[in-house]
Amino acid sequence: MAPETPGRETQETLSNLLHETRRFAPPAGLAASANVSADAYEEASGDRLGFWERAADRLSWGRRWDTTLEWTPPFAKWFLGGTLNVAYNCVDRHVEAGRGDKVAYHWEGEPDGDTRTLTYSDLLREVSKAANALTELGVGKGDRVAIYMPMIPELPIAMLACARIGAIHSVVFGGFSASALSGRIQDADAKLVITADGGYRRGAPSALKPTVDEAVAECPGIEHVLVVRRTGQDVQVTDKDVWWHELVDRQSDAHEAPQHDAEDPLYILYTSGTTGKPKGILHTTGGYLTQTSWTHHAVFDLKPESDVYWCTADIGWVTGHSYIVYGPLTNGATSVIYEGTPDTPHKGRFWEVVQKYGVTILYTAPTAIRTFMKWGDDIPAKFDLSSLRVLGSVGEPINPEAYVWYREHIGGERCPVVDTWWQTETGAIMISPLPGVTAAKPGAAMRPLPGIVADVVDDQGASVPDGGGGFLVVREPWPSMLRGIWGDEKRYVDTYWSRFDGMYFPGDGAKRDEDGDLWLLGRVDDVMLVSGHNISTTEVESALVSHPKVAEAAVVGATDPITGQAIVAFVILRGSAEESADIAKELRDHVAKALGPITKPRQILVVPELPKTRSGKIMRRLLRDVAENRSIGDVTTLADSSVMNLISEKLPSAP
Ligand code: 6R9
Q: N or C: which terminus of the chain has fewer CB atoms within 10 Å of its end residue's CB?
């Protein structure tokens, strides 16, 4: 999600407003037995490449590498000369080590009672059959395969089958339109699409196949469409279609995993593309698997023998790639995959799943946490959540109040919360607390992980002192970094490596507090400039969410004749709060008190919903259109495009 053009030039760096003093030390028991201790920071700072070599040694290599890092800025190659097979690392080696009966995935379909359990041995058989099927369809090493599927076991199986034979998968989120799908198929020049008739969402079958048919009509390069029967909906069968149950089920379940080079491509994943053409982010094999595996082991303290891990993301996003498929499987984890929505058939579904499987580690997004806050504390209180021991957050800055709510109402005040900052482009977690080490602050991602060199710089690229704010950068290459944008080398250099000399610029604002800890402040494109001060939307939103009546808030800067930009806030009230005439004043005063008078919103609008992307990020660009009384821009990446009508209806007729 990095900006097309680097963020607006700023006269000064970000104002540093929020003063959060709460701290949560790691529980003593967890600290004593944690996978990673504070020594890791020292180990990595003394010998960064040696640290990543030891992380790579957690994997099984066919041939060990010769060169750990070849760095020709901004192009990195890791573990050159090494060979490995990703699927072997995720599946076969656990079976060979006698852990074949261990559950890899507890799959929970959305319809009640619709479940499947896959052990590592089951997964090995299924992936081998699928790999043989792909070969029969003429798919070989380096070919691109588009995957457009619901959250069913065949989705990770299809990804692993591609990885096994060296085909490059491009997973397209199952909620995207036919034109989004065909654009991605064409950009990657894929020859096969793997899909399903449909999946279950919100209590009903939701068709996928008609969208694929429409997309494939525009894609002459597609030779076959491999279709899983999930819902049993009627599908129109075309001459390119092959049923999964007919082709895959009759294959041999023996398949020898070939070795691939460490720098062979593993997958392409298109970023959400809020502006312009989506970017095909390219990840490769050895470095990506090294960092996803190590971070999953370190940040979640995963104990494969005893933990039940659940990441609630969709596999169609990078979080699902790295932390439902590749990271957890390399570590031999037992994971939960849930197909549907959190409110089906009731608003306690997530907590029912945690209780049912005894989930110990939960990884979800701030948008979900704020929704649960809005639904009310009494819902999770009805379930036994005592199995949980580590909680994670990803996708947006987590507001301190949401963090504290998550810790208290889900984590029973005993579970550390790890706020993990990273991107599609970084491939794996970069900045995060370690649950057995860090005394975390609510709302802070805290420190770069061992082996990662990140910094906050001013607009000249100079490191800001403690207490300062500015732009987040990464100063040294990391194993799971993107290797480029598919088919567009120049765009890779322009987007990420041009703003600051020799540094990777992810497009996010950040501050470093007096203790040297990092706080992410949102996309620099969203920063507001009020009377000459750069103010982060995240901080004002967090101040609003800290008011007991507010569940969610989105803040934008709207052109103002006096102050340049003025702050306009859109808020959703908590379930129990009544909308009263003086709520706007109450909230404006609350923000002024929390952050200072300059941050007092000019206008506060109570709305029923906020516009979000399909991965749950607030689209402030559309709210800026509303606040500036413009016609609303492109809404095609919105999860629910009717939301903008709901918001417009709440507007005072002509501001
Ligand atoms: C993993 C993922 C990346 C953008 C990123 C940033 C935001 C993600 C965050 C966070 C603050 C966190 N972001 N995690 N901001 N704190 N813990 O979400 O990838 O979809 O590519 O989005 O998301 O703005 O630049 P992706």
A: C
How far apart are the C-alpha atoms of 189 and 176, rounded to whole Å?
A: 18
Over range 6-30, report the average pLDDT. 75
What distance in Å separates the CA atoms of residue 216 and residue 206, rounded to the nearest whole number? 19
CA distance 428 to 407: 24
Q: Is the ipTM above a cut-off of 0.95?
A: yes
Give the span between the Cα atoms of 164 and 422, in whole angstroms: 26
198-201 and 603-606 strand pairing:
unpaired
**Which residue minimizes the CA distance to atom 16 of ligand 1?**
397
Cβ of 431 less than 6 Å from ligand 1: no
Q: Which two tokens stand for residue 650?
A: 């709440």
Could you identify the atom of ligand 1 that is nearest to the CA of residue 319? 1
Q: Which of 296, 419, 422, 473 to mutate to test the pocket of ligand 1 (most atoms within 8 A of CB)?
A: 422
Atom of ligand 1 nearest to the CA of 271: 21
Q: How far is CA 455 from CA 269, 395, 431, 504, 509, in A?
A: 26, 20, 11, 10, 11
Residue 264 is predicted with a pLDDT of: 98
The per-residue DSSP string of 292-347 comes to HHHHHHHHS---TTT-EEEE-S-TTSHHHIIIIIIHHHHTT-EEEEE-S-TTSSST
Q: Measuring from atom 3 of ligand 1, which residue has the nearest CA? A: 423
What pLDDT does residue 9 have? 43
108 lines ligand 1 (CB under 6 A): no
Q: 193 and 148 in contact (C-beta within 8 Å)?
A: yes
3-state SS, residue 75: strand
pLDDT exceeds cutoff 50 at 655: no
Residue 19 pLDDT grade (very low, low, confident, very high; cuts 50, 70, 90): confident
Q: Angle at Cα 34 formed by Cα 313 and Cα 121, nearest 5°?
A: 55
Q: What is the DSSP letter of 70?
A: E
Q: Residue 557 contacts by C-beta under 8 Å, 6 or more apart in sequence? A: 527, 528, 529, 530, 535, 537, 565, 566, 567, 568, 624
Q: What is the three-class DSSP state of 450? A: coil
395 alpha carbon to ligand 1 midpoint, in Å?
4
- Cα 365 to middle of ligand 1, angstroms: 10
Domains present along the chain, CATH in parentheses: 28-511 (3.40.50.12780), 531-650 (3.30.300.30)
Contact 424 CB / ligand 1 (< 6 Å):
yes
pTM: 0.94
Q: Is 274 in the pocket of ligand 1 (CB under 6 A)?
A: no
User: Between the CA of residue 248 and those of 91, 155, 244, what are the distances in Å?
Assistant: 18, 14, 5
Contact 506 CB / ligand 1 (< 6 Å): yes
What's the rounded mean pLDDT across residues 457-478?
A: 96
Q: Which residue has the tokens 């099927």?
A: 133
Report cis status (omega within 30 of 0) of the bond before 435: no
Whether the CB of 287 sits within 6 Å of ligand 1: no
Q: Contact 286/79 with Cβ under 8 angstroms? A: yes
Rounded Cα–Cα distance for residues 208 and 201 (Å): 12
